[in-house]
Amino acid sequence: MTLVFADTLYWGAALNPHDQYRAQVIRAREALGEIRLVTTDEVLTELLDGLAQRGAHLRKAAARAVRKILDDRRVTVHPQSHESFLEGLRLYEQRCDKGYSLVDCISMTTMRRHAISDVLTNDRHFKQEGFRVVLRREHLASRLRRGTRHRRRESPQFRDLFLQG
Question: What pLDDT sits at residue 163?
Fold first, then answer.
């Protein structure tokens, strides 16, 4: 099964029905077909950090959603470790001319370690490092032209991540 890395933008759009990238994320997820999502504790930390100041209801819903992600057997979440931090820090230090965040650097080193080339994001930094950014419009259009049809309904896996009680 193909491994695809899920960045913070993906999870935010998957969890928030009003996110500006929601439709694009749904199309990308459907176009990819049968895949195994991969992410890191750091990505989930960044997601929760981004929602921390948006009120108690959203904060609780985000925590529930992250717990669902952690429990989902279809998603591999690589744990935070001192080693992953140091690997990310090395890349961060090597790319002083770029605007890469430390979380992005940890994601990139995790992707390399597990031979993952596709990433569900629109972050150009991943493209600069040679990864295939799956949420770019031209990539989606080429996938759909090759015969992968977009389903109008959301897949059960995607629907399971909604922020429901």
Answer: 36
Please state the pTM of the whole predicted model: 0.82
At position 56, the amino acid (one-letter code) is A
Dihedral of the alpha carbons of 7, 9, 10, 16, in degrees to the nearest 10? 140
Whether residue 6 lies inside any domain: the answer is yes
The answer, yes or no, to whether residue 150 has pLDDT greater than 50, is no
Nearest in space to 58 (alpha carbons), one of 92, 25, 15: 15
Dist CA 113 CA 63 (whole Å)? 28
Q: What is the mean pLDDT of residues 30-58?
A: 92
Tell me if 66 is assigned to some domain. yes
133: domain CATH number? 3.40.50.1010
Cα(139)–Cα(132) distance, rounded to whole angstroms? 9
Supply φ then ψ for residue 51, to 5 degrees.
Answer: -105, 0
Residue 140 counted as domain residue: yes
DSSP string, 91-112: HHHHTTTS---HHHHHHHHHHH
Rg from Cα positions in the chain: 16
138 Cα distance to chain centroid: 19
Residue 21: CB atoms within 10 Å: 17
Question: Which residues make beta-bridge pairs with 37?
Answer: 4, 75
